[in-house]
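Can you give me the bound-state structure? Components:
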Amino acid sequence: MAQAAIELIGINKSFGAVRANRDINLEVARGTIHGIVGENGAGKSTLMSILYGFYQADSGEIRVGGKPVSISTSNDAIALGIGMVHQHFMLVDNFTVLENVILGAENDALLKSSIAKARSELERLEREYGLEVEPDAVIEELPVGLQQRVEILKALYRGAEILILDEPTGVLTPAEADHLFRILKQLKEQGKTVVLITHKLREIMAITDTVSVMRQGTMVATRVTKETTVGELAELMVGRRVLLRVEKGQSEAGAIKLSVKNLTVKDQRGVTMVDDVSFDVRGGEIVGIAGVAGNGQSELLEAISGIRHAVSGEVMLEGKPVDLTGKADPGELRDRGLAHVPEDRHHVGLVLAFEENENSILGYHDDERYLKGPFLNVDAIMADAKDKIEKYDIRPGNPRLRTANFSGGNQQKIVLAREMEQDPGVLIVGQPTRGVDVGAIEFIHKRLIAMRDQGKAVLVVSVELDEIRSLSDRILVMFAGRIVGERGPDATEGELGLLMAGVEHQEAAE
Amino acid sequence: MSTPYAKLPAWADYGLIPLINLSVAFIVAGFVVMLVGENPFRAAVILVEGAFGKGTGIAFTLFYATTFIFTGLSVAVAAHCSLFNIGTEGQAYIGGLGIALVCLSFDSVLPWWVIFPIAIVAAAVFGALWGFIPAYLQAKRGSHIVITTIMFNFIAASVMVYLLVGPLKPAGSQAPQTRNFLAGAELPKLNWIIELFGAKIRSAPLNICFLLALVMAFLVWLLIWRTKLGYEMRTYGHSPKAARYAGISETRIILTAMMISGALAGMMALNPVMGDQHNVAIDFVSGAGYVGIAVALMGRLHPVGIVLAAILFGMLYQGGAELAFEMPAISRDMIVIIQGLVILFAGALEHMFRPYIQAVFASFSPKAVGIEAVKGKGA
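Here's the bound-state model for the whole set.
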């Protein structure tokens, strides 16, 4: 193979107690497209941020073109010919394309000469790489795909030889993504090196020459793309974790408690995140939604709980219709027996600055049990909080303590206690054990199964495949906003992994 | 508004930090006094004696403090809902309009104890209304409340100038102010309380609005920490996402918080208008709204802190006036500089020394500071 463009040797990086990168070794050959795959939180972005000078590695060595270098700011990276296209664009919305391209690379106090130079340079780049963009267009008026092209142009304008793209297709339509891939191939032909970070295996197979897989901060494997399969990559990505099986009896599914029909949800940018999804959850069963993070699960949960407005769809809660499109109100849904443990407990499920007892009524603060007229019934709230602390073994058991000072597992227990103790008919849970220690995981799983056994309908969304398999009575797999398959709890990891990677049913059977 | 994860012991948070900020402000002010060739220690003595030395001084200090308690509470209520209400100045000004209308209509027929409650309501309603418009624009249109409230200060000033040189000015008068209220609209003084302690009082404007301010401080505490509405405001203030999750309407909470804030600002006008001047004159608020921002920040948005901070600023106003009188080299503008320094260090730079103090505390016990659940990050 050709000479290495980048070598990373023994890179370590920790954030507090979390080791985001452990002993990473990576070699990217010049003139190739190198994919890095892994689930969200596997450490891909951290690694690239180290390469681009946003973070400093705790230890390890970076070599560019064979020479050891030190990259402490992004300017160092740019000087070494490394360019980065971020997942969230770093563009000035009300500047033109040209102005954005020269931003930070103006050579003069007056812009005239740099603009003229940039204009001719842009024309050359556009010719060479098929990166057509109108140089005088204002960024906010351009579609996302073109904005991304401007980001690429910015990097090339600064003389980038190595281009890092972080989840570049997350915001693109399929057609735009195809165009991007053509551009990347052209860049490769011109001798540039491309590093593509993604969790979409299909893209890896379509475009890369080599692929490295990361999992939980480590680099688990590097493969030549032609010699590997989606199945192998999926397995490497998800990994064979220690099985955490909870004992549970047969489910006795009862009446349909939550019914979702043709639900479509778009995000702020207008990208369809949940695409015509339909499913039912019956009383007495746990339905798990598996999927690689970012395939619409979060938006699905937010829509069902009323936090995010849906575009269209019919939802029935306990047999009665709910309007989720226009006047969705989380408070009303809660009154009707839908409890929600959100994915993001730090910003949504809890107010970290509050005392524990204050969080134990969040969302239920309208309930007359906790009120005396317009006043909070402090005694009742305290007694209630103490009761939950005891039942859910929340530690430290002090209801006056600031919530931020509880550990992740105990914070999650605060949310779970609040939602479960309201005796809801339907419980929806996002990432029940994210950032939770092993002891608490078991406790939380047992509680969820107890809810099921009481005849509640439980919907669990998790990116932990193991958790889904261990908890669910039925497993739905989400990919690109759609439900691409339903399996029983005995489905194998490989089978689910393929579905999660977007490989169709027929292929999976092979 | 402080860093959510930092945890200092309460005495350091509410006592030590303001004290350090204040000391630095006075040290820098001391240098300024030295620059004009006066003795900073003598100046300090005059300032404190002017504010607290004699009965009259105390009465004046508390009179000014009353004004600042109202504006400080106003800023704090909005801030608990993460709204930065800079419009206290204008809301107080318009509150004065409400009072003027009530007093001018009823002062010849009703006694003060009937007019006072009506005036309180009028001041609150007018102030609330002036807070409502920016709040509505924020909630429905996304216009930033900081910008709109500043603009509304100017609009309030223009409206009042128009009214005070036109419709509200008695015919033939040259002064841009309403006619003086009759005895029916004059509030009783509280000087007798200070005289109880044996101090002598000449004439000082301290009036029952001081008691009203203390009652409001208590009610604000009750509102913020003991009512459902306050709980909702704090939830929204800390995390709009959590508020949405909890089913709290963003529009309703922004409108409510700003109207309460505006009402408190409007009530500030009772003190100078009905308690002291007995008329509404141009620019009677004279910056008290802006001082309210510093008072609220320095009082850490807590009513007890606000009352203490308001008394501090009352002392600066009263003691400063004495200082300008006793030391001719120190002009009225110098006093403004000293007040500005206190606002700068205690208000604007409130968090300047915090990281260092936290570091010191952290070196004693690493667990006391900055405990943060970072576990979720790498899962």
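A couple of observations. The first helix of chain B runs from residue 10 to 35. The CA atoms of residues 156 and 233 of chain B lie 27 Å apart.
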